Amino acid sequence: MASMIFSDCSTTSRLLPLSRSRTQYGVVHVQRCVPRYLASPNLSFSSFGCAHTPTSRFIVTAAMAAETRGKVIDGKAVAKKIKEEIALEISRMKDAIGVVPGLAVILVGDRKDSATYVRNKKKNCETVGINSYEARFPENSSEQEVLKRIEVFNDDPSVHGILVQLPLPSHMNEENILNAVSIEKDVDGFHPLNIGRLAMRGREPLFVPCTPKGCIELLHRYGIDIKGKKAVVIGRSNIVGLPVSLLLQRGDATVTTVHSRTINPEEITRQADIIISAVGHPNMVRGSWIKPGAVVIDVGINPVDDANSPRGYQLVGDVCYEEACKVASAVTPVPGGVGPMTIAMLLSNTLISAKRAHKFQ
């Protein structure tokens, strides 16, 4: 795929509002259901589903997929709703047993983008009521210093989740540092044992990686069925491509992975009912790649030069939105799609960890 030519594509997103109205034959129908990932610390695949009880959660039914061609899935609105649910559950936990979930973030170096991500995570923790802890290290810190701090957080009962902000400086062994995080506090879901359990039938990971989990949660929140569908995942990274493929398989989809050595990727992708792209190439997936009525989840977030933008660039996805929205039944925007869901799932995983640690139902 590296040899492909990527042309410009307008990315003005047209968001699909999440309406609560009910009509007999309308595009959007709303159901109320309880999010099982908040009700129970068990992280089976079914925890992405919902039970029909009167709570604040909503789900847009599959009528959307048939009737709202050219619209996009509003990840920002869904993430906001999830954070409201998390805040309520944290309040219930605090009132019942006096425990508040805690998330520790380790930042090494002075990268502005990493500092921004950490600041955003801290702000979101405050929004839902999670205690946030932060350990900053200068660029020239030793790997051993970071490992010692991870050990402290591993042993701290007030910390239920540990996140190491990537990338790390080049002199540090990323694998050693990530593996040092206790599996019980691996809210990023990257520990080899968590990924291994995700891959094996009959086993359950303690945590599902946040971005893949967010992709699947979006599908479920919009009532988009996975079972029996043909799904194509573009990209095979350990962070998104691999785990999201495993999650789709757990949902009984027939999954094909498209990667840099795939022959005829356009032809293969065009067979998919569900496309999840996480390859990091701007506007690679064109309208001609998409089967009419398919659902497209765009994980890519790529800066491209834009002289008309005050920042000198704009963020675009892997998917050419203007073309995709004319063919697909639903598309996530960039920004405002998968990105907000990643943060929401990190908060969800931290809550799950605290509930598991204290056996709180």
Can you tell me about this structure?
This protein is α/β, with parallel strands linked by helices. The chain has a 5-stranded parallel β-sheet. The N and C termini lie far apart (47 Å). Helix 8 packs across helix 9. The chain contains 12 helices and 14 strands. The longest helix is centred in the N-terminal third of the chain and has 23 residues, at 75-97. The chain has helices spanning 36-39, 63-67, 75-97, 112-128, 143-155, 174-180, 192-199, 210-221, 241-250, 265-269, 321-324, 338-357; strands spanning 30-32, 34-35, 50-51, 58-60, 102-108, 131-137, 161-164, 230-234, 254-258, 274-277, 295-298, 302-305, 313-316, 330-331. The chain is 35% helix and 16% strand.
What is the mean predicted local confidence, pLDDT?
85
Please report the total strand number as a whole number.
Answer: 14
CA-atom Rg in angstroms: 20 Å
Measured distance between first and last alpha carbons:
47 Å
Order of helices and strands: EEHEEHHEHEHEHHHEHEHEEEEHEH
Q: Per DSSP, what share of the residues sits in E-state strands of 2 or more residues?
A: 15-25%
List the total number of helices.
Answer: 12
The description of the largest β-sheet is: 5 strands, parallel
Work out the helicity level.
Answer: 25-40%
Structural class: alpha/beta
From the spread of the alpha carbons, the general shape counts as globular
